[in-house]
Amino acid sequence: MTTTIEAPRTQPAAKKRTNWEKWGWIYMRASGVLLVVLIFGHLFSNLMVGDGVHAIDFAFVGGKLSSPFWKVWDLLMLWLALIHGANGMRTIVNDYVSKPGVAKALKVALFLAAALLILLGTLVVFTFDPCPAGADPSLVASFCTAK
């Protein structure tokens, strides 16, 4: 009796599927490196430049969030950090939760929490008014005109 083993590449190719775990792994490395740059830049600009931590007040934040550069900087930091953290928690759920129903519920909760925080944080960055009407002039940014 002769047994013939077919060459491994003669079988029909399986459908190509996206390897989400691989892309999640790559995202974690890339976002981690970018977050280090963003966070240390944020800390340096807030704590080391000017009067340091003593200068941080409503006017300081208003001045930063009136600049498109700092809006993009803070938005990138927000999005990358929340997605990075949610993806890390998803990995922990995959590693330690054995019941599929519980794992799915936790992942849905993680997704919803991250999506809600991203939405709210983005709204704050884009709708923040550094010159609110009726505010004490000594508390608002120096570029605000009296209303």
In short:
The chain has about 150 residues and is mainly α.
Spell out the blueprint of helices and strands.
Layout: H1 20-48, H2 58-65, H3 68-96, H4 100-127
Tell me the series of helices and strands, N- to C-terminal: HHHH
Name the overall outline.
Answer: elongated
Q: Give the count of helical stretches.
A: 4
Overall average residue pLDDT: 87
Largest β-sheet summary: none
CATH fold annotation? 3 helical TM bundles of succinate and fumarate reductases
Pathway: Carbohydrate metabolism; tricarboxylic acid cycle
Function: Membrane-anchoring subunit of succinate dehydrogenase (SDH).
Membrane topology: Multi-pass membrane protein
Protein name: Succinate dehydrogenase hydrophobic membrane anchor subunit
